[in-house]
Amino acid sequence: MRNHGGLPLQEAILGLKVKTHKTIGEAVTQLKSSGMQILATHLSDKSRRFPWR
Length: 53
Hints:
The protein is 28% helix and 0% strand. It is built from 2 helices and no strands.
């Protein structure tokens, strides 16, 4: 079985480490502490620009 990108699904999934968290805040804190940047988007007429540092 292949996805639309042409990669076998099994290869796309292998090596993926999944860690669950009790809250989104806990997940964001853990990701940020490991040096990751959290980005999000919402396509809406009410969307606004975020003041990046």
